[in-house]
Amino acid sequence: MASFNESIRQFNTRYYRLILKLNLWWKWSYYQNKRFKESYFPAFIKYKIERKSIWNIVTELIELTFKFKCLPYHYFRYGLYRKRFDFETVKKFFPETLFYYKILPKINTHYVLLDDKNIFESIMKGSGLKYPETILKKKNGTIYDNKNERITTEVQLRELLDKTDESVIFCKPASYSSGGKGIFLIRKTKDGWTTNDQKVFDLHLLKDEMESDWILQKPVKNCEKIARIHNRSTNSFRVLTVFKADSEPRVIYISLKLGTDDNYTDNAHTGGLYVGVDHQTGQLHKKGFDEKLNEYDRHPLSKKIFENIKIDRIKEVTDYAIKAAAIFSDLTVVGWDIVLSDEGPYILEGNSSSGLDALMTELYDVI
Question: Which pLDDT score is estimated for 24?
């Protein structure tokens, strides 16, 4: 029986990789072409004065295509056509196409442990690491409270929500969401709980109008230092870890994700910006970037200058990421979203297909 189970496992692994590649091929091409049209090319036009010569750009594109054996969309995503990047530096940037399409299917086959937030929550509960408190969740059409007791009536739902001491609750798609997509808030009003678009949040909406699985959680407040940069959103650190079987997990990159305007999420896809962080010292990089390659030396609302900010407690963040990476040892590369609160770090989620913004040659180690 054991040998039979092993044969099934090997078959499923090979089948998964094949289907994933076939499915990703056209979706990834569509996504990259769409992003090129909407973001990459407008940025290319904007940096006309800073661009290298057309001859240099074409030459570099050809060499990168042969080097990585894929179309080098990352050349435009990261603005590598600008004069500030010599070609030796350009060659150190890692193309997302190669990572997502060829490498991830081989190294992160247990992605469901992260991408299903209900499964992730169950693992986190036994990990000893702080995780946002769950109010309720929807799994396979059934509503549960945070003790996995079923919620079947409107009275039960209202009592559960009213017991919380929060006036705002985050509602997140529980299955395979990314980039902050689908997240919305419900707020406590004198008439009950309502959504962003003023719909009454009741059992009917949760069961019948909200498709798929969901998880509702209390917000986590930023520590005072990060809240001073931007206090209208939950700002998190994206911490990329690599964990190979023959070594200890390690942090290779950190960025601080910051919301802008009135956004309550910090994702670049929803208008936020990223600022690199030195994971040894906590010093913020001089400039941050949004998804359209606009550069910022300070936050557009608070006007806090990034170069003047140092996160003294950054070791708490990196230590948390390393502990989490050890728990999820079946996954080689994970991007952790970690909020640093006054009470310590909280892990919001782990991303099995984390964005590779500003990553350099460290990832060659996992090929």
Answer: 59
